[in-house]
Specification:
It contains 5 helices and 25 strands. The longest helix has 22 residues. It is globular, with a radius of gyration of 23 Å. By secondary structure, it is mainly beta. It has a domain of 322 residues: TolB, C-terminal domain (Neuraminidase). Strand 15 and strand 16 form a beta hairpin. The strands form 6 sheets. Strands 1-2-25-24-23 form a 5-stranded antiparallel beta sheet, with no helix packed on it. Strands 3-4-5-6 form a 4-stranded antiparallel beta sheet, with no helix packed on it. A 4-stranded antiparallel beta sheet has the order 7-8-9-10, with no helix packed on it. 10% of the residues lie in helices and 31% in strands. The protein binds heme C and calcium ion. Calcium ion binds next to loops.
Length: 484
């Protein structure tokens, strides 16, 4: 049950007085040149008779073999499609394809090339009693807990117990290999589709104040918006297996609630100064990511009790959601602060193609849906634009998608050669990846393991081991070093 809103930060206070529409309010136009033509079908009709259906090619070379005579980068491939190679017998396609369709074709060629490359590649698929020899460290994957239902995230209590959320709504404790019954009295969640109980995090001063934060999908209470839901944040304390002292930290006004069951975000992280950051996906309405009056498609920043920090980028804008820190996000589900370098990283689940790692900066626009490297799931284009002035570029994007989900930064001692690396998780590709980052460049990537379930969350534990939350099959495991 959700008690009466009892914190100063809850609800409407997070908005300035409504009224004026601000200059920041964009309504994004329908993607220019976009049409409903499916790119797979276009390839079959327009390209396959010369370039073939697979890596063998046809009278012209294969476009799925990762060999590019005329340049491997996106621009060169797009230019080839646009202008053709008339001397060699390929006509220009610019009259037949829109720019957005040319972009979609590039994504499609990348997907197919990647699919064929993966079929030939082998990745570590750890099973019990076997270890993985990765580039820098040998490790084995050890079971921590099973018998969970769609576990979503974990947090570590100072006494060694682990808090784990389950999407359908339960918060449980893992001690040793034992999984507790649900904690009583946690908020009722709107458990539908991608929504439910999401992230759990401890206050940086948990040892003295006991605050635990939960992000979850909240169901609308008003009759008009009764079907709606929006990501919400509360904090509370744990006492005798009971959730007590609950306070609302973020609750959006219900006119912003959406009836869809997708794109809720949400990750909770604190910076060095006890600001709480959390993410909300665009809830299935792409244009909302650019609309600063709405909380969806944003990364937010509040004080630990939910009040708005006066130095938030839009704190003074009338009508705007004042907790917004950055916008133009699709479905950001990974956030981490590098407290040493002061960098704030965000992982964003893209459409088909266009998964992004972003360096999140105050007030910045990350572009969705006006710019993206991806296309729609049905193979139709979203936009021809991958960049625009005033919009941030991802540090790196994965096209084709790996179905990026969460991320964490490794600072432990158990895997010394992984220190300062980012770890990212992938759902559809069932991967845990290690990224070596130098300031704003990903200089190396390694798939640490693959194929043991959808990798929902990764957390570097206080013991230096790496905890991984898996779905299908549902369990929590950890990476343990094997001495060489
Ligand atoms: C009438 C035959 C023909 C058709 C149809 C055709 N191409 Fe080509 N294409 C060629 C030839 C010939 C070349 C240059 C030599 C080669 O790559 O074999 C070429 C080259 C290319 C290249 C450069 C390849 C590289 O290695 O850099 C791209 C990209 C390309 N085509 C894309 C397409 C796409 C996309 C379509 C469909 C929309 C298409 N082509 C349709 C014949 C064709
Ligand atoms: Ca972006």
């Amino acid at each position: 049950m959700i008690p009466e809103r009892n914190s100063v930060g809850g609800g409407w206070l997070q908005y300035a007085l409504p009224g004026m529409v601000t200059a920041f309010f964009f309504i994004s136009l329908a993607a220019e040149g976009a049409s409903a033509r499916n790119i797979e079908k276009l390839y079959a009709e327009q390209c396959a008779n010369c370039h073939g259906k697979d890596t063998r090619g046809g009278m012209a070379s294969s476009l799925f073999d990762n060999v590019w005579r005329y340049g491997a980068d996106d621009q060169s491939v797009a230019r080839g499609i646009r202008e053709g190679y008339p001397d060699q017998g390929m006509e220009a396609f610019k009259a037949m394809f829109s720019e957005a369709e040319i972009r979609a074709m590039v994504v499609y060629l990348r997907e197919k090339s990647d699919q064929y490359a993966r079929e030939g590649a082998k990745y570590p698929r750890p099973v019990d009693h076997q270890w993985v020899t990765s580039r820098e460290h040998k490790f084995r994957v050890e079971q921590v807990a099973e018998g969970l239902t769609t576990p979503w995230s974990v947090a570590f209590l100072p006494d060694g117990r682990i808090l784990v959320t389950e999407l359908p709504g339960a918060l449980r404790l893992i001690s040793g290999k034992q999984v507790s019954p649900p904690v009583n009295g946690t908020p009722r969640v709107r458990a539908r589709g991608q929504g439910g109980l999401l992230d759990v995090a401890l206050h940086p001063h948990f040892a003295s104040n006991g605050w635990i934060y939960l992000a979850f999908a909240h169901a609308a209470t008003n009759a008009e918006t009764a079907n709606g839901g929006m990501t919400s944040v509360v904090r509370g304390r744990l006492k005798d297996h009971q959730w007590v002292d609950e306070q609302a930290v973020f609750r959006a006004p219900e006119w912003t609630y959406r009836s869809t069951d997708i794109h809720f975000g949400s990750r909770l992280v604190f910076d060095r100064d006890n600001h709480l950051f959390f993410s909300i996906g665009e809830r299935g309405t792409q244009e909302h990511a650019q609309d600063l009056t709405r909380p969806n498609g944003k990364i937010h920043r509040v004080l630990d009790d939910g009040r708005i920090p006066p130095d938030n980028p839009f704190a003074d804008q009338p009508g705007v959601c004042r907790s917004i820190w950055s916008y133009g996000h699709r479905n950001p589900q990974g956030l981490v602060w590098d407290t040493v370098t002061g960098q704030f990283w965000g992982a964003e689940h893209g459409p088909r193609g266009g998964d992004e790692l972003n360096w999140i900066r105050k007030g910045a626009n990350y572009g969705w849906p006006r710019i993206t490297y991806g296309i729609n799931y049905n193979g139709t284009p979203i936009t021809e634009r991958t960049e625009m002035p005033g919009m941030e570029q991802p540090v790196i994007h994965w096209t084709p998608s790996i179905a990026l989900c969460s991320l964490d930064l490794y600072r432990g001692d158990k895997f010394p050669r992984w220190k300062n690396n980012l770890l990212v998780t992938a759902l559809a590709q069932e991967e845990l990846r290690r990224l070596v980052v130098i300031r704003d460049r990903v200089v190396d990537q390694e798939v640490l393991f693959k194929g043991i379930g959808r990798v929902r969350d990764v957390v570097a534990g206080p013991d230096g081991l790496i905890y991984v939350v898996l779905n299908k099959p549902d369990r929590v495991v950890r990476l343990v070093p094997v001495d060489n």
